[in-house]
Each structure stands twice: as structure tokens, then as C-alpha cells.
Amino acid sequence: MNPTRQQPQYLDLLLLTYRDAFAAGSDQSGRRSWWYIVGLMLLVAFFFSLVMLVTSPQAMAVDLGQLEDLTGGVVPVVMFEGHDTFTNEYVYSVKVINQTGDPLVAGTLFLVLSEVLDLSGKDVLGSLEVPNQEGTIGGKPYFVIPAGGLSELPSYQEGQPINVRLRSPDYVIFYPPSFRVIGVRRRATQSLETLIRQLTDKGVLSEAEAQEALRPLQRLSE
């Protein structure tokens, strides 16, 4: 036994297990088993892509047309938490209250830092550092609004608080920041259902696969 021989990887084991399906004279059941596993792996990859489409901030940052401006219906409540005089860093706690009348899909809600005014009324957001931002949407820092592990933020409920840190390298004094909220109402998931139906009509998905893909959306509407 060669002690330096590497252990076979998962894909190697999979190929070794089902190599008889491709050997000469192998029966049709072996081939069907192989293609079943390949199809299952592709289906899992498809589901993962759907989850990324719905929940990924990066994906949402690319296509803002899929997000609705919920500002006014979803009200940010900003509370001052503290100030570090050495770094001139201000800390705010921000929570949002859903007053839209519709549940909002968790993972698609973003708190966007829209402007920060100094004492003269000038927007100084561009000169500030936001150390804990999760990315940018339209050039503005954003934070994902947590829903406490729920699949949606129900109507007339509030999300969990978010800490927003603003640092001024030039030691500029400014007013509390202003925020916008963008996201997806539960009813907007119908566009994703339409996409799945189109893939089914084109033969990309079977009816059973389409039903499986639609199941998470159906749970949201219950």
C-alpha cells in the first residue's frame, strides 16, 4: 500500500460507484441512476441560484429595478448611541417599522444611508467613513435589515435594530443621518413565479421541478 497515495475525493468516489453505468453491456437502470444523480445535482444548483437571486445584496445592487422604494411606508427610527471624541465616530441604532400594510420579504430589505447634513446644510456623506456598511447601492452605503430569522417582516411590525457607525476624518460636526428603505413586498414574488413558469414552458424545468422550486414562495403566501 502506497502511504503517499491521496484519498479519493467525493467526485472520484461518485464516478467509481457509477462507472458500471458506462461500461459496455451495462443495463439501462444503471444509466438511469447516473442521469438521475446528475439531474438532482443540477436541480440543487438551480435552487441555490434562486436563493441567491432573492437574498443576495450584490444581486440586488446590480438591478435596482427589482426593488421598490418603501421609504415612507417603512419608517426608520434613528437613535443616537454614542460618540468617540478621539476618532470622531458617531454610533446610531436604527430600526424600521413596516407600515406599508404588506409583509416584506426578508433578505431583500435594505436600509440605505441617503444623506448626512453638516451644520450649514451641506451633504457631507461623501467625506465620511462608514466602517460597518455591507456594501453600496447606487453609490450609497447600505445595511441589510434583519427580520429575526423570519421569512418576512410582517405588516406593522418592526425589524431588529442595526448599528450604523459614521466616522469623520475631518472632524466635521453633522446632524443625525437620513435613510431610505428599499425592498420587495411579498406580492412582488409573483415575478419570480412567472420566471419559473417560463422555464417550464420552454422545457428547461419539468412540472415536478417547477412545483419544487415554487414551494418556498408558496410558504411565503401562507
Note down, in words, how this protein is organized.
The protein is built from 5 helices and 10 strands, in the order αααββββββββββαα. The protein has helices spanning 10-17, 28-55, 57-62, 190-201, 207-221, and strands spanning 68-69, 74-84, 89-98, 104-105, 110-115, 135-137, 140-144, 152-153, 162-167, 178-183. A 5-stranded antiparallel beta sheet has the order 1-10-5-7-6. A 3-stranded antiparallel beta sheet has the order 2-3-9, with no helix packed on it. α4 runs antiparallel to α5 (207-221).
Keywords, separated by commas or semicolons:
Immunoglobulin-like; five-stranded antiparallel sheet; 5 helices; disordered N terminus; alpha+beta; elongated; 222 residues; 24% strand; 3 domains; three-stranded antiparallel sheet
What's this model, at a glance?
This protein has 222 residues and is α+β, with helices and mostly antiparallel strands.
User: Which series of helices and strands comes N to C?
Assistant: HHHEEEEEEEEEEHH
Rg result = 25 Å
Average pLDDT, rounded to a whole number, is 75
Query: What is the strand content?
Result: 15-25%
- Strand arrangement in the largest pleated sheet: 1-10-5-7-6
- Judging from the principal axes of the Cα atoms, what is the shape? elongated
Write down the CATH class of the largest domain. Mainly Beta
First-residue to last-residue Cα separation: 59 Å
The residue ranges in which pLDDT falls below 50 over 5 or more consecutive positions are: 3-18, 50-63
SS content category: alpha+beta
The biggest sheet amounts to: 5 strands, antiparallel
CATH T-level topology of the largest domain: Immunoglobulin-like
Can you name the CATH architecture of the largest domain? Sandwich
**Strand elements, count:** 10
The amount of helix comes to: 25-40%
**Into how many domains do the coordinates divide?**
3
Count of separate DSSP helical elements: 5
